[in-house]
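Hi all, posting the design record for the shared folder.

TITLE: backbone redesign
STEP: 1 of 1
STRUCTURE INPUT:
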């Protein structure tokens, strides 16, 4: 099969100035380095759309929680999931290749991609969205140029959250409807209304709960504005709506890692909250795919101006999984069904959350997988209802077609509590983004779950269990590849010196748990430990740190 020479010529003109590796987050770098990468990704997205029968694939321009001067690009599969791992490798090869013709020829034969623009067949589309960074809209025009060069349709949704674009792609391919923001928010509104009618413990119109959402000065603010327009959720107060710098001293990643109150660029919103109100604080990240809740140590909300010295207690992904599992079990117990429910964690989940989930009993099953949202999502889809969150606040509840079909049959054939429970579970499937983790959906989901439980204050949620003291460290090394693990990253197999130390420490301190793994994208080795005493834990972690640096080498100055 011949390749249109115009495609070869254009792609040769766009050569990256450094090597890039496609990871879970796609390609990310300083925005000024990205034009060649984005153009070639536009070509690749078109190739992916041509390789399978589909309506469209997606391409999102964002760097999520990264600083505002960064940007990135990621490709979305026709089913709304992240790019297939095989195509991740193809992406890295194509972006870095000095001879892209060779890569394109391989795709001709191995993936049946037609590289000519005169095809008479129906051509798919590439759906494109971008976040609020200054560099995002200009980069999207490069994608348009590449997609049209391939002879495909180009549809740009403009400024959207990353999960919204995942949703648009999934719905267009699976449901055959015109995906847009309106039906995205209508699904959220429908789920909230059903739960309001059948499940909320307190349906008072004048509830004294205010929901303060830190929008990280990103595109999530626009989505939250739309949410308040479409739903009946009361008392939403958005802060960091664009007056400050994107992700700087605010947002989910900052809160989760630093456990301090965000800097608020528009604190007058908080000062307007009544002094006797109950307040739910939460943070989105820059492209609104992560959400964490937090409780400030200071309780006088009117005086919270955003001092970075104000400590907070973070309710992160583990606790979202626990909250979801409790409510799902509550409804399933009423149905007395055989639906399987899996809560998927990594070895980095706090051990106290894992034990709490195990103690819930049937039908809840707890499964541990390797680090990375792809592993969590893949495992979650093996269950009728799969619950997964990373500690960083990225996650969702996935409902299989089997589960939704079962619930519809219950609704049609029963009355009373069983019917109500089935309606409520279907409502949760409507709220939870079925394509990917979504901070906007998860905000509605978390607020729904709290109301189902009748918990107006976040402390009721927090007090379900007490996290084990834990310690995390990222070590910059010369050669991270020397670290090898097995058993879902819970056991170190190499180097031998580290394996021996880890084994000896674990055997002599059975109440403690230690994890060591190489970063997937940086020359960093990540250390994690937890146990009953933080001072003892830190001493034990220092021994592991010393051995890691000896084995892998310290970075050259």
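Okay, here is what came back for every position:
SEQUENCE:
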């Amino acid at each position: 099969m011949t390749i249109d020479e115009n495609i070869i010529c254009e792609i040769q003109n766009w050569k990256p100035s450094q090597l890039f590796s496609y990871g879970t987050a796609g390609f990310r770098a300083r925005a000024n380095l990205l034009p060649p990468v984005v153009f070639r990704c536009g070509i690749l997205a078109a190739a992916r759309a041509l390789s399978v029968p589909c309506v469209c694939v997606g391409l999102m321009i964002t760097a999520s929680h990264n600083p505002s001067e960064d940007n990135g690009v990621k490709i979305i599969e026709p089913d709304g999931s992240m790019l297939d791992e095989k195509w991740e490798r193809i992406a890295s090869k194509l972006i870095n290749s000095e001879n892209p013709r060779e890569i394109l020829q391989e795709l001709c034969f191995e993936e049946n991609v037609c590289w000519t623009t005169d095809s008479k067949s129906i051509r798919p589309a590439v759906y494109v969205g971008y976040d609020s960074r200054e560099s995002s809209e200009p980069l999207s025009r490069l994608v348009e140029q590449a997609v049209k060069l391939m002879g495909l349709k180009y549809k740009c949704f403009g400024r959207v959250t990353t999960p919204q674009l995942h949703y648009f792609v999934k719905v267009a391919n699976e449901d055959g409807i015109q995906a847009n923001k309106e039906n995205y928010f209508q699904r959220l509104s429908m789920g909230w209304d059903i739960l309001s009618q059948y499940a909320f413990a307190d349906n008072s119109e004048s509830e004294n709960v205010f929901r303060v959402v830190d929008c990280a000065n990103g595109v999530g603010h626009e989505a939250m504005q739309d949410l308040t327009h479409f739903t009946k959720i009361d008392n939403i107060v958005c802060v960091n709506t664009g007056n400050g710098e994107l992700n700087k001293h605010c947002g989910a990643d900052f809160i989760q890692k630093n456990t301090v109150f965000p800097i608020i660029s528009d604190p007058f919103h908080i000062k307007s909250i009544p002094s006797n109100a109950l307040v739910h604080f939460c943070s989105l990240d820059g492209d609104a795919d992560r959400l964490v809740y937090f409780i400030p140590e200071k309780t006088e909300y009117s005086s919270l101006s955003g001092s970075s010295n104000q400590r907070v207690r973070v309710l992160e992904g583990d606790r979202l999984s626990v909250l979801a599992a409790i409510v799902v079990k509550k409804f399933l117990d009423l149905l007395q069904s055989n639906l399987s429910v899996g809560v998927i964690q990594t070895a980095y989940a706090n051990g106290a959350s894992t034990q709490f989930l195990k103690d819930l009993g049937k039908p809840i099953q707890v499964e541990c997988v390797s680090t990375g949202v792809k592993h969590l999502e893949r495992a979650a889809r093996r269950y009728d209802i799969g619950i997964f969150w990373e500690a960083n606040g990225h996650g969702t509840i996935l409902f299989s077609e089997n589960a939704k079909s079962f619930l519809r049959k219950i609704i049609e054939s029963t009355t009373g509590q069983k019917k109500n429970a089935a309606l409520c579970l279907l409502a949760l499937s409507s709220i939870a983004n079925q394509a990917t983790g979504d901070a906007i959906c998860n905000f509605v989901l978390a607020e729904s779950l709290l109301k189902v439980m009748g918990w107006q204050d976040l402390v009721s949620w927090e007090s379900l269990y007490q996290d084990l003291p834990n310690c995390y460290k990222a070590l910059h090394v010369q050669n991270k590849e020397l670290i090898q693990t097995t058993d879902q990253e819970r056991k170190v197999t190499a180097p031998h010196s580290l394996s021996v130390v880890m084994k000896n420490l674990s055997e002599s301190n059975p109440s403690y748990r230690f994890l060591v793994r190489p970063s997937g994208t940086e020359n960093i080795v990540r250390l994690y430990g937890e146990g009953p005493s933080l001072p003892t834990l830190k001493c034990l972690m220092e021994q592991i740190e010393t051995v890691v640096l000896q084995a892998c080498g310290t970075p050259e100055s």
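COMMENT: The chain has four domains: 5-179, 184-315, 318-439, 470-552.
Let me know if anyone wants the other runs.
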